[in-house]
Amino acid sequence: MRPTPQTEQELLNRAHDLAGLTLGELAQQAGIATPPDLKRDKGWVGQLLEWHLGATAGSQPVPDFVDLGIELKTIPIGYHGKPLETTFVCVAPLIGLQGLHWENSHIRHKLAKVLWIPVEGERDIPLADRHVGSPLLWSPSANEEQRLRRDWEELMDMIVLGQVEQITARHGEILQLRPKAANSKALTEAYGANGQPIKTLPRGFYLKTNFTAELLERYFIL
DNA sequence: GCGTGATCATGA
DNA sequence: TCATGATCACGC
Predict the structure, then answer these.
(1) pLDDT at res. A222
(2) Residue A219 reports pLDDT greater than 90
(3) Which of A23, A69, A127, A161 has a 20 to 30 A CA-CA distance from A76?
(4) Is the shortest CB-to-strand distance from A31 to strand C under 7 Å?
(5) Distance of CA A71 to the CA centre of its chain
(6) CA of A64 to C1' of C8 (A)
(7) Under CATH, domain A8-220 is a member of which superfamily?
(8) Among candidate residues A104, A85, A182, the one with its CA nearest the CA of residue A73
(9) Which residue, counting CA atoms, is nearest to the C1' of nucleotide B9?
(10) Nucleotide at minimal C1' distance from the A202 CA
């Protein structure tokens, strides 16, 4: 792990220095082996970039760069220039929701300042040959935050009302709620339709690809 | 089991 | 072709 950057500018400079390099080059510098593919190493790209940028959080529920309040997200990009996958944000709380509002929500803090790093993601490009793109430091615009908040409130209302199992990935304009678990046997507690506790799959909030595509597009137009 | 990092794989 | 629902690995 490289030393953690002390300032936002230092982090940005370092991220810019990675642009144009391949994952193979970055793995070699880090002394990390490149897996044949991501089937069994889905978080490998993210962790490789964390190493190079000196992220500190590990698996703690805090921003990757705590002192800077910045979250790091790598995002796989296809030949068409648009994201290939939705972006996981954080686990969704399913119980103990009294006093929870958008303003003090975990997800709002997570998304307050994000360093997006696009990486070539097409599966027919060997992992080691994929290039890292130019970083984008993003904070939600007023409009974006309003849309995020609207989706979040809709989803959280359903969770409070015991309708978590009726939620599908189609709910929400830009934010969606989907399973986030080791497998379909992992269960956690949630509210049932009559307020009784039920066991259900843990869920996570994800940003839909059309939204992240919009972010990147706005950046490239500016 | 939870939270971190996400992508896989199949049905529509 | 593409998004949804399922899944993989790790530290604790």
Answers:
(1) 60
(2) no
(3) A69
(4) no
(5) 9
(6) 22
(7) DNA mismatch repair MutH/Restriction endonuclease, type II (3.40.600.10)
(8) A85
(9) A39
(10) B2
* Domain ranges, ordered by start, for chain A: 8-220
Q: Give pLDDT, residue A86.
A: 98
* pLDDT over 70 percentage in chain A: 99
Note the CA–C1' distance, A103 to C6, in angstroms.
Answer: 31
Given this model, what pLDDT does residue A216 score?
A: 96
* Nearest residue: Cα versus C1' of C8: A40
Q: State residue A221's pLDDT score.
A: 67
Q: Is the CB of A42 under 7 A from strand C?
A: yes
Instruction: State pLDDT tens for residues A153-180.
Output: 999 999 999 999 999 999 999 999 999 9
CB proximity A133–strand B (7 Å threshold): no
Whether A122 sits with its Cβ under 7 A from any strand B atom: the answer reads no
Residue pLDDT, tens place only, A36-87: 999 999 999 999 999 999 998 777 878 899 999 999 999 999 999 999 999 9
